[in-house]
Amino acid sequence: MKPSLPSKAALIPADWRDSGSSARGRYSYAFLDEGAKREIRRKMLKAVAIPGCQVPFGSREMPIARGWGTGGLQLTLALIGPDDVLKVIDQGSDDSVNAVNIKKFVRQVTGVTVTTDTRAATLIQTRHRIPEEPLRPHQLLIFQVPIPEPLRLVEPSERETRRMHAEADYSRMWLYLYEDIVKFNEITVAARYPVLVNRRHLMDPSPIPRWDVAKLNQGEALCLFCAGREKRIYAVPPHTEVAPLSFEDFAFRVEEFGERRCGRCGSTGTYLDEVIDDATGRRTYSCSDTAYCEKIRKRGGATRPGGSGEAPS
Amino acid sequence: MGYVAVKGGAAAIENAEKFSLVRRAGGASALLKPEQIREQLHFAVDRVMGEGSLYAPDLAALAFKQAAGDTFEAAFILRSYRTTLPRLGYAEPIGTDGMRVIRRISAAFKDIPGGQILGPTPDYTLRLLNFDLQEESSSRTRQQIRQLFQDAQRQDPLPERFPKVVEMLRREGLLETRRRGSGGGDGLVDITRQALSFPAPRSAQLQTLARGETGGLLALAYSNMRGYGSVHPVIGELRVGFLPVSYKNPLSGSIERLGEIQVTEAEVISRIAAAEGSALFSLGYGLCFGHNETKAIAMAVLDRAMACEEPAAPSEDQEFVLTHVDGIESMGFCNHYKLPHYVTFQSELDRLRNIQTGQRPTEETRS
Fold it and tell me: Which of A293, B5, B18, B320 has the fewest CB atoms within 10 Å around its CB?
């Protein structure tokens, strides 16, 4: 009954095999079995070939809970090689407990180098943010996705939303936005703003703020999205048009920070977290991208609006 | 300690793990052995195996210990272990009429061929707190068990096979025949290898229900029984027992027996809505690992409910049922709301403040 696969040992880099962690002897390199990795890679290729289209896949159970990044983690594990340098962020922060936990797990089963430096990373797994520093070719950005279906807002049934995508019938989404404007003189969709990819597929960009949506458009890096619980993979390849739904007379707008700047590094061109001071009750702001903030601070702080000048404009 | 944006997240996680250890094992009592759990908390073990979708009593007991009695968590641990196991092949189909039965009842007939076998059930026990168990004497309990076995030897042995009750109805032509592979191909679908699509083939429906969370299945099935639905179930047959698992040796072609699994099987009968032609009975089928009658019956009711052509209630809509009964998925997603969401909340704040002030800035910042 021996399966005719290459032995596990042959697939595992030698330095990984010999290292001490108890998880390493017990599980395959990068946790997933090779069959699972191959399936996930194939589905990613399909997703890249049809930008913005959701590709179903046999999502595996992970040792972290559903909804906590099992989709992003499966892509990371299916892609990561021993030479990769990994960065994991949650809400823009490298030190958020869930990001730390995911990093710890991937290190345990691969032994790869981890970094907080966006520039140094070859593979970045993220929840809810795109780093402030522009990504470069050959970098991979992997998004954790809770709800992959942008049309879920207007239609609960999967059967129906699949039909709507097939027919590019997005009228109900447009209508939803229009009705918002009529009722509130504003679109109420805050994060997870629906975007049209390659002028064909409506896509959920994951719950990134509207601030980050522009970074998806004509980017340099390959963006991969995965929802483990909902079992869907989709992608935005480099140099692909990604446009938020927007009306000619009511344009898409990102979050407003006015003249506010980061209290730590002084940047003004970044997405800010609002923090309420315990003692004074005063509202302060700091960069959500903590690694970027740290970098600017080390350089002596931002001296002019736009931080280092590398922030997207 | 804050749970984000503070250096030291790793240390906080390690400490959280240590505190959990204190909660589980910090008391004065002797530490539980997994074998005690496997033998004495067998309903919990069965539930964990069913929802964890892996028949492994020892590992399920271990998971239950590790999870300190949280069945969601234990099933989750077992499932994420399962996912690392290689898929070597598929067992031969098993006919449940060959079940080594420990319990078998029918609510549809007073007497059935082979007889009603109550077996081990607390159904008719008064639910009074048994204070004797506080200081249970192991010698007295063992004496009781010995006596039981002595008495049992004087009884006639159970028959090898029990005929299926619903077969009698089928022979009479009273049962509706299900269309094969309704909604999909004829081959078996494995939902752990292929994402569900709708309409889902019956094999995918049953697999999803069999892995479903007991409470989730119960809530949906109960909604149907109570009135949000049209299944008026009669339990044609409920069985608890052991089934042999066989595997066809791919080299020699011979069938080899691997062992047995304990399962609970429920077949519920419901009259089909008399839309056209003569009235018929139709069947709902439930089967799950271990001894879990609530789950098997709820599953059978939902299987029957989802066969409705035009769903009129949530429990009759297969997409609604199948996408919400998985315990690992629903509990994971429910708990993920504990993760920080302040980036998206900031975005919400921005929208709300804009709406409240009624001011839409004229200049476009970015597009």
Answer: B18
